[in-house]
Structures
1.
Amino acid sequence: MQTIEPLLAGHSFFKGLPKEHLKLIVGCSSNAIFNPEQFLFREGEEANTFYVIRSGRVQVETFSPKNGPITIQTAGEGDVLGWSWLVPPYHWRFDAKAAEQVRAIAIDGKCLREKCENDHNLGYELMKRFALIIAERLEATRFQLLDVYGK
Amino acid sequence: MMTYPYYVQKVRQETYDTFTLELKPAKEQEIGPFEAGQFNMLYVFGLGEVPISISGDPDNPERLIHTTRAVGPVTQAMRKLRRGNMLGVRGPFGTNWPVDKAVGKDVMIITGGIGLAPLRPAIYHILNHRDDYGKVSLLYGARTPEDLLYTKELEKWGQRSDLEVHISVDRASGDWKGNVGVVTTLIPKSTTDPKNTLAMICGPEIMMRFTIMDLQKRGLQNQDIFISMERNMKCGLGVCGHCQLGGVFVCKDGPVFRYDNLKDLIAKREI
């Protein structure tokens, strides 16, 4: 069985990180499996984790009393899911549910936050990487809101 | 160019506002063979003529197929046509998807909404001559799962080992187990090699602009990106000027353009 370190080292999100930083992140990481319909996290819960999806598809949802659950995004193989652990008050804003069996690396954000406070170089590297993901997500959301396929 | 009478052979409702017509010539005279990406002018007698992309198989031109959305008076009247009704067909017009230029390369076909219809002939051609191409990815975005076209065909294509099919919708209820997000989020899923890939894109102009930016980020060159433009085409011959875009006529010089030949025009808001 492959250990977490080479999996993270080979992922584009962690590309270029110094070995000592990667080791710190690996120290906060564990493997996780979610069965179909199982929640990775729920809206309002404390956000202490983010996930690197290895396989399977995750639905990011919100709930409307009128329409039930509405999927606003899906994440799949290779995606990094969740940044609420990075932003106060560290609560999830959406639900994330496995649409099929999901294998992921769960990274303890609380543990990582402390390490980032103690090592600002690590914090800066992670912030740069998450800023890119957040910017891409913002761009995609704006594009989604344009409703370009409407009449 | 002559308008020929055609009978409606089949009508299929694709989505709540989109339908497919299969036509056959009413007399011996008929339009010539077509190439993937071309369009015909369809005439609802007494009402008007509209440009509609051909969405059938270019290797099987006797089945003349058009998919369109009912948006204006002519297409709304067209939706009411039934088997045996007649309409006029003039064409085929315009430039074609560069299926010959793509030989030996990987191909990315990226489409949104009804843009799948003009690209379907290119997909048919590539699948009919599959050994001529490297990896082929179809990335298709729609508004909701209910707006997806050709769902049975997509399912069949998805089962092929020589075609990657990735579909995403902009919004969905909890029942939809597929991807949710804009079509550009599918681009990283394609295993095509950016250094040897030709991309064909068709969809709303905003979607094409976003897609091109992401393809450029991936490393595709402008000369390997082809787009299909939509303008108010009337004569189909580059004479009337309705579809003029700067120095080009979309009906004659397009609708399929190599992106580097159009990028300065597409960016101009005034035209």
2.
Amino acid sequence: MNEVLPNAEAPNAEFREAIAKDYEWGFSSDIEQEFAPKGLSEDTVRFISAKKNEPQWMLDWRLKAYRAWLEMEEVDWAKLDIPKIDYQDAFYYAAPKAKPKLGSLDEVDPEILRVYAKLGIPIEEQKVLAGVEGARKVAVDAVFDSVSVATTFREELLRAGVIFLSISEAIQQYPELIRKYLGSVVPQRDNVFACLNAAVFSDGTFVLVPEGVRCPMELSTYFRINAENTGQFERTLIVAEKGSYVSYLEGCTAPMRDENQLHAAVVEIFAHEDAEVKYSTVQNWYPGDADGKGGIFNFVTKRALCSGARSKVSWTQVETGSAITWKYPSCILKGEGSVGEFYSVALTNNRQQADTGTKMVHIGKNTRSTIVSKGISAGRSNNTYRGLVRVLPGAENVRNFTQCDSLLLGSECGAHTVPYIEVKNPTANIEHEATTSKISEDQLFYAQMRGLDPEAAVALIVNGFAREVLKQLPMEFAVEAQKLLGISLEGSVG
Amino acid sequence: MLRIENLHATVAGKPILNGLTLSIPAGEVHALMGPNGAGKSTLAYVLGGRPSYEVTDGSATFDGQDLLALEPHERAAAGLFLGFQYPVEIPGVSYLQFLRESLNSQRRARGEAELSGAEFIRLAKAQAATLGMDADMLKRPVNVGFSGGERKRAEMVQMGIMNPRLAVLDETDSGLDIDALRSVGAGINSIMRAPAKAVLLITHYQRLLDYVAPDRVHVLTEGRITRSGGPELAHQLEREGYVEAAA
């Protein structure tokens, strides 16, 4: 399975050295772009909608969001130092130049395939991999910049009745489903970034798993920012019908940039009765250089509605990238006996800032939630866990368990835990545990004395710290995530 | 094999080692005894290269190589094993993962081929069996929930897996009951009693020396060797105490 991620299998000195020098995936490729005019206005929204041949209702929906966005306030409650964003100084749409409809991967721009190969995600190998005995199939809806350029495994998924395609295509092919579910979990006005996304989302993914179907493979989308000054506004919508199951993997890397790039994605998950959705993320956007210059602003809204009884949504995230991370994957536990889980590793180094956590809103009876958050801070970074557990008056017999652990490397970083617990029903059973620790000199010396160099020793100790979360990840991602934690901490030992 | 000359070292500015000279030829086991605070553990840490233990004078060579110029992991790869008095917990990391990564890191540094997962597990199981340890314990996180005796046994299993040329064992006998003491002693003999290997056995008590017969015994007092002798010196120390015997 490691073949999916060749880099993860090369812990050699050259590899490490290459990464220590530069952000390894910091390159940009020359693919002809088609840009929307710079800046943000109603015309931008109309341009994007027209580019995508969208129906009138979709344009209206976007315009409504745009007008609402104009009225909204910036976020100021997070423990983040967010520079003023000049929304007029960015492009909101960039697509690889339109080509005839692609029938196979062979027709994909070789430059794009080359970029993927450099990223260690060769699409063509995905096919080979699918044929390998015992290897799980991974369907890749490859999002290159704003437009899906290749979709594999679609046929097999279709045979199972699973809809898995870009959201642009879904708007054309399944307008009734999109109209029904889009914005049903994250309303346009939820927050300023979600609202912006609703106005200008460029592309993303739509998944629908029909009643009783267990999705035959793990679904994986690799995102990549590749256009100078282009905000990235992905929109993901996952609908799990009654009794269905799907595991969705999302991972991303971004090329090096000097200017900050705004990434404001929205992910909505709608889970019906007895449905289960597992959503895993490895986030490795460019974090900026050691002095905090450049790097991605990752302002993401992810929310699941456990609408049906006994539905279950599990968020697992490994966040190592981005200059600023603002992200709270949440569960609205409406269905009776529904279950929400949040497993998170957030690692910050150098000047990175992360304010991340979850919201578990218990509405239904007998709903349960589990939160396990592992924050790792190094360098001069700031890492905040912010989590809300809310139990509404009608929610009888709610259970929540929260564990927040912070690990500090060095003495110039910060770790903060901000739990909000609002319980309106006395039958609730809420547990909260929190720890803060430092990697001890004892541990480091012990590991070094057995033969590990200081960086390997730190990586090992940090991976142990994060194990409870990493083991929630599908195998392919667990390997990458472990590697990533080590890489992200390079230079933090001194 | 190990040659220490006029070694001076400080911890937090305080002199602990004050001109220690000691030589261990290949094929020999030397015991280092002495009262609390004499600098026994400091010597072990200095030989390991622990940060914050500062060498202010003197030298230590390992097969002619300047030991003090190497990083701790380089000393390990060169064939030095340090058995800890207080083995450290590493939560979330299994012993198997820890030791496999450590061993392969050493092997890479020496230009040897890495062991595969299966090869490593075979080795680890064999070593655990030799030391009378349940191999399933190696699936548990490093030293988490281990009793004092289990930790020391695990140290010896580690030594068996690493197969070093020079072992510095810091009070490996402390916290052991008589059965554990016997198997740890047998482990030291089977792993380290070889013509090309050497051991520095740091201990308070004679009792481990009943199982691992030393070739030489040294008394450390106030940071330097104050007396050296054959195995009989250990018995004399046990009878008379350090102050009298060292006089």
3.
Amino acid sequence: MTEVIDAGSMRGVPPPSDVLLDVRNMRTTFKVMDGVVPAVDGISFSLKRGKTIGIVGESGSGKSVTALTIMRLLDIPPAQIDAASEVWFDGREILGLPIDQMRRIRGNDMAMIFQEPLTSLNPVFTVGDQIAEQVRTHKKVSKKAAWDRAIESLGLVGIPSPERRVTAYPHEMSGGMRQRVMIAMALSCEPKLLIADEPTTALDVTIQAQILELLKSIQQRTGSALMLITHDLGVVAEMVDDVVVMYAGEVVEHGSVEEVLVEPRDPYTMGLLESIPSVEKRGGRLSAIKGVVPSPFNLPPACRFEPRCPYAWELCRRVAPALNQVGTGGRHARCHLHTPDGATRLRPALDTHRVALSAGRLMSTDQG
Amino acid sequence: MEETEQRMESTEQRALATPRIKGRLRPRPIGPILRARAILNGVIAVVLLVAGLLFFASLVFHSAAAGFGDLAKNPGLLVRIWPAYVVAIAARVATLGFRNRRVWALGLASLVGVMLVAGAVGLYFIGRQPSTAKPLDAANATFAIDALAVFLLVFGVPLLWSLLRGLSWFTDRGSMHQIKTAAEIKAESAAFTRVGTGGLAAPAPAASSSDEPLVSVRGLKKHFPILGGVLRHRVGTIYAVDGVDFDVQRGEVFSVVGESGCGKTTLGRTLLQLTPPTAGHVVFDGYELADVDPEDMRPLRRRMQIIFQDPFGSLNPRMPISDIIGEGLLAQGISSRTERDQRVGDALELVGLRRAYTRRYPHEFSGGQRQRIGVARALALSPDFVVCDEPVSALDVSIQSQVLNLLLDLKRDLNLTYLFISHNLSVVEYFSDRIAVMYLGKIVELGTVMEMYRNPRHPYTVALLSAIPVADPRRRSRRLVLKGDVPSPAAPPSGCRFHTRCWLRERLGNPEQCVTSEPTLRVLDTTNHSAACHFSEEINEAAVENTVATQSVVETAAAG
């Protein structure tokens, strides 16, 4: 994980060559009737070649918009990408690329797997047609070669008798099969980056296990990097190397998966982990994060998590926290607890968290 | 008449006499016909009896008048007793409309009455002038016999049958498999409707039968027809729920888990009789629900409520919260607006929402708040038993725990019993006391949470548990990945329904038994744990680990 705080001072400077994706200070807003909504509000992270990063957050945290902005799939307007935003992909800044060059990258060097495979596949073409079309768009190959490629990639994702299945229509397949087709399509051009937006949310738990294991093994074989967007911390723990936790359009914490999920340092991440039901918490109450995600029209003035935060104090209502460094590594958390002002409160907060994690917090913090 | 009206006003009658609710609720006077339903029952009963008696009486009368000998020689005479047929047919229609179309039935009954009189008069004159009846010639006689045969076939048989049924229905009412009588149900319902019974306080649990299960399900089946072809005839059957047995004890959380399509939602709905079961019994607190007449079902419905999965689809966007929650109260006979609003407010406070929200509409609330409204709607009726159908699966993690906490608090405070339907095994592990795992319409394993999670005894449960992603990277381990998808419930595999995906069967060298004989749910070493697998004893950690180590990760899609 590279340094992200001084993204501004890195402007225009390409990242080191081992970094495949470098998102700097990305800000995407939507102009709607009631005003301007900052869906993604100045986030930065980077992903090395062949690695996996997890973007975690609840609905409305801006994680899907992050992916769509990187893919440049948003309609502009209503969406607007801030001029200061930079996304470096494979040594090139892609937000400023002309659209025809972007088309060459999209689907070829970076591919996306969507949440709902049925709506993402065209119902009137066979899956083979759809995969071959993508191959022919990006590679100079014959129709026959593209068709063979489609069969090959269906086989790669474990679809039995791919030469027969290649002529099937999406509706003839089950949800798990369709998701495999989506992955096959994404893999057909051997992308360097695979973006998976909630790839298993619509699937049953046994099928989810199939797809996750498949993604892992494909990544091992092809060496592509994976950006996994999910709300499921279990999936994150299973799959990724680094985690970015998002809340209300901002990054609130990031670090390696071991650091963030085992020793979270932002109150929001702590709260998320505490609220996962487990057998140890039986009999006690689950500790819930009180309240709801704030409306993007009416964000709290300083810290966006402050109204729901059990550790907030006066400073949190006055000054918006920066992404403060935690410890000595490349870990950061957007919380005043990690500034000199919050130093005395940090220890008690972590103790409370530890108790809540094991036994549930016996507190009435769940008023809607 | 005035006296009757006053009697109708009594609370008990109001509890029973409830209009069908349509569209938006408003405090409106209940129509006189509907209010007088109790009288109506009597009217129809009398009409039915009279009609039946007259039918037979006119047969006898006519036969006697014509002489049995004449009748045998000249069956065409029978055609002349048409008024009796009309009466009987009308009575048949009246019985059809009896249960749910009472107003209709009243109209028909009066029509029947007119016909009766006309028929009686006609018969009287025929009887007085037997000599005028000229002997019919041969051709006419044949036609008359044919006509009579058709008449009897088409109307006579079902008619007699329905008359008998209609009559036996009256006499049978006392012999339902009930511990309590209908009068007692009504009394309980009246207690609920009585003004000022402390709002949502829990009803005292029935001490007499507290060791009996609150809900007993035996052999419950729900099959849906697959219609096809031009004539929309049945071309197949979906075995959504195919014979399940379990008991839900008072005060426990009984969970049903399984993948989509395993029939868990259908189970919940069939259990509540929201869709009629194909076969099987559901006994709720001593009442055999299939036998309870729709009439007596209403007070029981109050005691069995459901919370739906989708907080967006399950609330009518055109109704304010007061009506969404108040609808059930009105259906249970609380017709006073102020009383209803009071109870709606109580219910909202109970689920942690403000009383002042009653006049708002669903779109003004967040997902978590909507789910609270769904909970309030169920609890406003002070139920004993609540079916929670995936109540948290549409919610974000942080909101999910709020709603789970709320459900547990309410269970404790209101003495509730839950049937919790979920696909999320972590939630179920935290939330429930006992679990049933369903696969393709059958329960494959049933036991207490501790037993089941520590010592799963069905290969499907093992795989399900192995597939749960744990939010702890230190516990990252390889999963036991099942092959393929759940087969179609329209064509479940023979023998053990899980055999097509079973890792254990593969390990044991594909024994024939799994394909040929269907395993039954058998009690294992402990009394609290049963599984439907021929080879439960073969499951151990070494076997699981070995399978995980040798499985292919990519070739997990369904073969074929």
4.
Amino acid sequence: MRRDRSWLGLVPLLLFLFLFLIVPAVSVFQRALTDNDGNLGTKALKDAFTGQNFDAFEFSVRLSAQAALVGVVIGTLLAYAASVLRRPRWLRSVVTSFSGVAANLGGIPLAFAFIALLGRQGLLTKILDGLFGFELYGGSFTLDSTWGLTTVYSYFNVPLMVLITLPAIDGLKASWREACSNLGGTSWTYWTRVGLPVLAPSILGGFLLLFANSFSAYATAAAISQKSLIVPLRIGFYLRGDVSANEDQLGFSLAAWMIVIMAISMGLYWILRKRAERWQR
Amino acid sequence: MRTKRTTMVIAIVLSAGLALAACSSDSADTTAAPVETEAAVAETEAAAVETEAAAVETEAAAAETEAAAAETAAAAAGGDLTKLAADCTTEGQVNLIALPDEWANYKGILQSFRDKYPGVKNPVANPDASSKDEMEAVKTLAGQKDQPDNVDVSPAIAQEMVAAGMFEPYTPTSAGDVPASLKDPAGNWVGSYYGIMAFLVNTKIVPNAPKTFADLLKPEYKGLVALNGDPRESGAAFAAVMAASIANGGSADDILPGVKFFADLKKSGNLGGTDVTKATMVAGETPISIDWSYNLPGIKADMETAGFTTALAYPTDGVYGGFYAQGVVKGSPHQACGKLWMEHILSDEGALGYLGGGAIPARFEALVAAGKVTEEAKVNLPPAELISKIAFLTPAQITAAKDVLAKEWGPQVADA
């Protein structure tokens, strides 16, 4: 009997995952647990999740959840609009190809684009002031505030959400809606009993992805903000600072906690998704 | 650029990759080092890991019968430059890192090195790297042919590198002219240039330019003041806080008034959140930038090209001098060239090169005494009465200030 060798096709992927995900992740934990003299200890891990460092995690999780929520709501609505759009025909493909590009734009170019547009000397800031006498910076708005960062993150979060949910929304069959109406359901019934439950897995998945996207954003955040409450920036202080010395272990401990938080949210997503997909079986 | 799906993964991989690389280099340091030394001796162009080996093998040394004499001379007193230059020409290259073109006129200094020693290449890896990045590169690239031969690091990182034994002690021939506070007693590093904090002001946006730290608090500068980085990360921002502290009753032993000053600046809304880069300055986004005096003349010219008018001010109320330390990396591939580069940056050409970029060369006083500094060369320098006030921090003072910043900067300024 010939043995099944179909698993061989997976080898490159597994090898890749091993080298670039498993090994580095294990090494993060290893470095988080070893101090400069090579002694094992959990002090750094503890320090990385207390005091200012804990505040940073709290802030980052809150900021990322807020940015993800904004992205999910706007992105889903936009995807729905693109899905029901019949005319002009070209608009839909413009939306999807733009989303494809914008979802991948980030880092310093994006940050700088926002600085040029909405910065203190930004084009839009000046236009608003000149034409309408509206001072964008009159209140508490700054690009590095929570809402400023959410705005910038939305630039890649919203298009990413469109790309994720558009196929799912396209999958909503017109006949389901007709069936719902025939049985006396209103639009509200349709969405709460049919539409959203069908879309739930992809919306949840989208939320998680957007959360991860915002939680791990480094270059964009670094170019706009000097807040050390953003965990990736904080890791930067410990790992590449000019003045901080011998605090690598703390940086790795922060990274280790980031992995833990991501693992927890992945787990939550997995459980939620199981429940959301129950009706499919 | 971020990728569509796996940003998180990438962030982890990036930081972890660093860890991985550092781990593997650690083991290379301990296990592979002896083997490499032997191999180097065997090869004819031996990267001069040991002066002895180099002396035996190079052509110049063949003429000399007493290699030992050459060895002591080269190691202790800087040796004779002709031989060093010949050894370096044999090596053909010096690996440099983190020297931006517009930083203290490194562009000109790199060029004058190539003019003086034709045939020796001096590539600069990762010009915008931080000091910590440099140290990491020395560690991770140990034993490889692209390991940096020479570094230019902040005093804090220099101390760390001394502790880790990463420097090859070398005292350049002209080190006698360098003030004691600018060199390591054991010869690990020399600080060959220094500067003070300065404000570069875009006078098209801010017609009434601030002159002192106290001026920065005026309501008219709301949202206009920007710091070059975070003091917990960037040496320039650290210096700005230290200078502000001195301006507000603090001292080299007390950085807290500086933290308080920036906390007030943040509270009043004057301190913007954006980091200073050449791009933000040329775009007018950071109209009042606080940075090293030796970074600003180059950017000033760029801003003027971009159509702005500018003013350079040296705050008189807070004078704090900061230097960067240069040293030869122990066991790096081009030892002779690493030393020759030290000789070059401390030579008259090197020193006048720094001067051209607005940096004060370590041998400034000796050069002035020798009549080698023309009025023209001083055009980018801070006023003489400020230069004479410059004091440097000791490593212990730096460590103490750093600890205060680690505790206070986040809650009081960055995240307030």
